[in-house]
Amino acid sequence: MTAASLKRIKAVSWKEFVQIKRDKRSLGMALAIPIFMLLIFGYGLSLDIDHVRTLVWNQDASSKVTRDFLLNFKNSKYFRIVGYTDNYRDIQKKIDNGDIMMALVIPKDFSQYLESGKVAPLQLIVDGSDANTATIAIGYVRSVVAGYNVNLLTQAFRERGLEPVNTVDARMRVWYNMGLVSTWFIIPGVIAMIIMIISALLISLTIAREWERGTMEQLISTPVKGPELIIGKFIPYFVIGFFDLTVGVVMARFLFGLPFRGSYMLLAILSSLFLTGALSLGIFISVIARTQLMASQLASLATLIPTMLLSGFIYPIFNMPKVVQAITYLIPARYYIVVLRGLFLKGNGMAVMWDEALFLLLFAFFMFILAVRRFRKKVA
Amino acid sequence: MFERVKAILIKEFKQIFRDPRMKTIIFISPLIQIILFGYSANKDITYVPTAIFDRDNTKESREFIRKFTYSKYFVPLRYLTEDKQENEVLDKGQVSLVIRLDRGFGRDLKAGKQADIQLVFDGTDSNTAMVIMSYTNTIIGGYQQDILKERAEVAGFINTVPSVDLRDRAWFNGNLISRNYYLPGVISTIVTVMSLLLSAMAIVKEKEIGTMEQLTVSPLQPLELIIGKLLPFAVIALIQVILITVLGVLWFRIPLRGNLFFLLFATCIYLFTTLGIGLFISTISSTQQEAMMSVFLFYMPTVLLSGFAYPISNMPLVIQWSTFVNPLRYFMVIIRSVFLKGVGIEVLWTQLLPLLFIGLTVISLSYLRFRRRLA
C-alpha cells in the first residue's frame, strides 16, 4: 500500500466520520440500541423456569399424608401454589386464561391407598401450549414424585428394621455457570447479535443511500480505488462496532456480574475478525440491493434472522435436524458465540478454540474479497 | 374521495412491485423465516450429548449406565478413560453431561452402602442444563426405586410397599411440540416487522426524494393520502398471514383449531397499531436510515417483551406492568389461542379491546402529527 493510497483511505474515512457525526440520530441509535438491548435481555428476560404457577385440588384434604406430600411442592422454589380448588371447571378456566401452568389433582382415596400399601394415582394437568415450559414443569413434578417414592420404600425398610436401605447418591456439579443463571448464557449471544446487526445493517444502509442518491458515482469518479473506498468506509463502522463491543463487555462484567475468564487480547483479535466479516457482508448486501429498502430487507434476512436462530444463541444446535445443523456451519455468529461464551464463562484459550478462530478468519477473508469484487463489477 | 384514494392506491402498489425483487422479498422472505423457525426454534431437548467415564467397570456400573443410554435422550458420544478428558470434552462443548462412576461403585452398591455417582453438567446454557438435570433426576430416582423394590422382593414384602403413580396430561398440545407454540408467534412478529418497515420507509422515501411535496400540492386530502399509503401495506400483511398460515398448517402440521377469519379480523385491528407507528416514525425521520433504525428500536422491545420467546410471568414485576401497553402482547395471545386452543371472540375479547384501544390511539395521534407536518 502506497502513501498516496493511505491518504485516500484517510480522506474517505474522514468524509464518512463527518457524515455519521452529522446524522446525530443514527449515531445515537448505533450507540443506544446496544445498551437498550443488553438492559432488556439482562434484566427483563429470563429463561429460568421456576415458581411454576400451580393450582391444587386436594380431594383428600383431611389426611395428614396428602398435606405432607404437598409440602414437597410448597418447599420447592420450582413451584408456586397459587391456590386451591374443588372442581374441574375452575381448573379449565384458569388454564384457558393462562392464570396457571398446571394443576395437581390428589384423588380422595390417595392416603388410603398409601396406607394400605397400594399404588396411589396422582393426576397432573399441564397447559401444553408452551411445550418447553410444560416439559420442564412435568420433569420437576416427576423428580418430586420419584423422590417421594424412594422415601416410601426406604421407610418400608426401616419399619421392618431391615438393612440395607442405601442405594446410589448422585453428586451433581455444574461447571462454568454454577448458579445456572440464564443471563450468563444469553448476554454473550446478545453481544454477538448487536455487533452483527449494528455493523452489517448500518453500513449496508449508508452505502445503499449513496447509490440511491448518486453520490457513489461521484466518489468513484475521484482517484479513489475500489478497495481503498471500501477500507475507508470500513474504518468508522469498525470503530462503532468496537465501541459497542466494549459497552457490551463492560455491562456484562459490571452490571450483570458475568465472569470473564479468558484473555481480552484474544477477544479483541477474534472480534476484529468477526467485525470485518460482518462489515464486508454489509457492503456486499448494499451492492446487490442498490436501494435502502431492499438493503434493509436483505440485511435482516441475511444477518438478523440467522444470527438469532441458527447460531446457538438461544436454541441449542445439537437439537436441530441434521440438515439445519449443516447450515449452521455457514453462520459466522455460530463461531463467534462459541468464542464469546468460551472467553466469558469457560476461560478457553486458542488451544480449545482454534477451529472457531480459523472459521472466523476464513469468513472475514472471503467476505472481504467477495465485497471488493462485487463492488468492482458494479462500478465497471 | 374514493377516486383519489384509488389513484394513490394504484400508484403505491405499482411503486412497491416495480422492483421485481421486492415482490420476492415480500412474499418469499416470510416463508423462509417460517421454515427457519420451524426447524430451528426448538427448545425441546430430545438429544443430550453425553460422555461416560466408567472407572468402575463392573456389572453394576454398566447396568446403571444402560439406564441412561437406553433412554431415548442420552446419547453417549464419548467414553472417557482419563481425568483430563473430562475438561476437554466440556471446554470444547462436545457434550452437555459427563457421567462418572469411580472405582468401588459396584462394590458399595452390592454391600448396601451408599454408592457415589458424579454428574458434571455444562451449565453454560442454564435452561438446557436444567432440563437435562431433571431428566437425570428422574432416571436416578427410577433406578433407586428399582433397586429397593428388588430388595423388598427378596425380603418378601414388595406387595405392601406404597407408591405414587404420576399421570400427567398436557392440554392443547398433547405431544408437547414447541413448534406449535412458536410458529403462530412467528407469524405475528413477521407481520409486525413487515408492516412497520414498509410503511415507515415508503413514506420517508417520498420525503427523501422530494416527491412528497408533489403529493401535497395535489388535490389529495391528508386522510386520503394516508389511507392510500397505508392500505397497500395492510393488504400485503394480510396476504402474508394467509401464506404463512397455510405453510404452517400444511407443512409443519400446526393445528389451526380456531377460525381463520377471526384471526384475519384480529390482524386488521393489530395493523392499526403497527401502521400507526410506521406513520409516526415517518414523521420523525428525515432519512430512510433513520426510519430503519427507529423501526428497529421499536420492534426489538416489542417482540422481546411480548411473551414470544420469554414468558412474561418470568419477568420482573415492573417490566411485566410495562408489557400492558405492548400491542404485540395481546396479539400474541390471540394468535396462539386461535391456533392451539381454538377459542374465539367469546374468550379473546379481553385481548381485542386493549388492542383496539391502543391501535386507535396510536393511529389517530400519528395522523394528527402527520397532518400538522404536511401543513
Sum up the structure in keywords:
heterodimer, A: alpha/beta, abc type-2 transporter like fold, 2 domains, four-stranded mixed beta sheet, 9% strand, elongated, B: 375 residues, alpha/beta, 68% helix
Describe the structure.
The complex is a heterodimer of chains A (about 375) and B (about 375). By secondary structure, chain A is an alpha/beta fold. Chain A has 2 domains: about 10-45 and about 180-380, no CATH class; about 50-160, 3-Layer(aba) Sandwich (abc type-2 transporter like fold), CATH 3.40.1710. Chain A is about 70% helix and about 10% strand. Chain A has 14 helices and 5 strands. In chain A, strand 1, helix 3 (about 65-75) and strand 2 form a beta-alpha-beta unit. In chain A, helix 7 runs antiparallel to helix 13 (about 330-345) and helix 9 packs across helix 10. The radius of gyration of chain A is 29 Å and the shape is elongated. The two termini of chain A are about 20 Å apart. With about 375 residues, chain B is of the alpha/beta class. Chain B has 2 domains: about 20-40 and about 175-375, no CATH class; about 50-160, abc type-2 transporter like fold, CATH 3.40.1710. Chain B has 14 helices and 5 strands. Chain B has helices at about 1-20, 20-40, 60-70, 85-90, 105-110, 125-155, 180-210, 210-215, 220-250, 260-285, 290-305, 315-320, 325-340, 345-375, and strands spanning about 50-55, 75-80, 95-100, 115-120, 165-170. In chain B, strands 2-1-3-4 form a 4-stranded mixed sheet, with helices on both faces. Chain B is elongated, with a radius of gyration of 29 Å. Chain B starts with a helix and ends with a helix. At the A-B interface, helix 2, helix 5, strand 4, helix 6 and strand 5 of A face helix 2, strand 4, helix 6, strand 5 and helix 7 of B.
What separation lies between the terminal Cα atoms of chain B? Answer: 19 Å
* Rg calculated over all Cα atoms of chain A: 29 Å
Main sheet: strand order of chain B: 2-1-3-4
Strand content of chain B: 5-15%
Radius of gyration of chain B: 29 Å
- Helix/strand/pairing category of chain B: alpha/beta
> H/E series of chain A, N to C?
HHEHEHEHEHEHHHHHHHH
The overall pLDDT average of chain A reads 86
First-to-last CA distance of chain A: 22 Å
Helix content of chain A: 55-70%
Order of helices and strands of chain B: HHEHEHEHEHEHHHHHHHH
The tally of strands of chain A reads 5
Q: Characterize the largest beta sheet of chain A: strand count, sense, and whether it forms a barrel.
A: 4 strands, mixed
Low-confidence stretches of chain A: none
Q: Estimate nothing, just give the exact number of structural domains of chain B.
A: 2
Major sheet description of chain B: 4 strands, mixed
